Amino acid sequence: MTVQVPVKLLLARPSVDVITIVTIASSTAVFTATPFLLQPLATEFGATVGAVGWISTAQLAGFVLASWLAGRYLRPVRWVFVMLALIGLVSNVASAAAPGVGLLAVTRFGSGISLGLAAWFAWQDAFGDAQKTRDVAVVGPLIGVVLPPLITIFVDGVGYRWLFLAMAVVTASPLLFARQVPKVDRLRPHRTRHAATRGAQAMLVALTLVTLGGSSVFVYAAAIGTEYNHVSPFVVSLFFSANALVAIPAAKWRGRRGPAGLWFGLTAVLAIVMPSVHIPVIYAAALITWGIFFFMGIPAAFALLASRSRFPEERAGDAQAVMALGRVFGPLLGGAFIAADQTTVMGLAAGAIMLGAAALMLYVDRDRFALVR
């Protein structure tokens, strides 16, 4: 029965067009594949996983730069759409041919540029619309259900260079729909940019803290499972698929979600428990439940940000940029604790950061304390 859920959701009539779905799906697929490349790359180049991890940081840096600049200087028109796909194609082909970690980091930065443009392109159309937000948010979990085991099999079977070439094909796939993208942005023909309201600024800070705290634990969730809970890598991959599976109905939830701060407060509790309590059953429960809480919170947070913005579409790129910024520094924070074998302190630090974000969201969400409008 649960296997049929993703199929039904894919067959359902979405509120966003196929261009948006394909664009965000291709971007998500590349991000999903990246963590599975670290160990093979470390082996290939004779480096540590931590050193190779900088390619992920470089990719996220490109994502931050592109998504932040796109919302300020670009419009969702055809030439931008073609450019983001071509940058992704060239960057991934170059990654497959990279002879060392240094050049690979440069090519992954280019990949991040493509991913940032893709995320902005997809989200700017959905921001401020609850149904569209749900449909875009659910793409990530759908990809996360099926892709991790396939990536593992692919890398083990033909190697990481072929995976980069497969990424090139995936990032270029939106070009098939390029003719459906208008040449002129008729809704926003001018380049006037409006400053974020104080409420929107507070939400952007909160979203930064959410991903900073969350990624400092979640990026190392697989290592926590194998090294501290002695769970096999294959079983851990199944937990990740279960995490994505339960996130699907959470992202698509049509009823009242409640305050975004509530969901991220609950996620903060999981961020404390998962690295601190080394009991396999509790680890599995925390990892899987994370998918429910986090994806109940994200659409609620985006809706709150849109409600506190006079021009919600202009905040789409900002939201993606600040969340990616949190994901840049989160793994560095978590990595320092992992290196020192201080997983309990790691959980407490991550939880405190996320609780701060949750409290800020609850503050913004209360009408009598609303920071703007």
Beta-strand portion reads under 5%
* Main sheet specs: none
Shape: globular
Q: Count the strands?
A: 0
Detailed description of the structure:
This protein has 373 residues and is mostly helical. The protein has 17 helices and no strands. It has helices spanning 4-11, 18-33, 38-45, 49-52, 54-73, 78-97, 101-126, 130-137, 139-158, 160-172, 198-218, 221-228, 233-251, 260-276, 280-307, 312-339, 343-365. Helix 2 runs antiparallel to helix 10 (160-172), helix 5 runs parallel beside helix 7 (101-126) and helix 7 (101-126) runs antiparallel to helix 16 (312-339). The model is unreliable at 1-11 and 368-373 (pLDDT under 50).
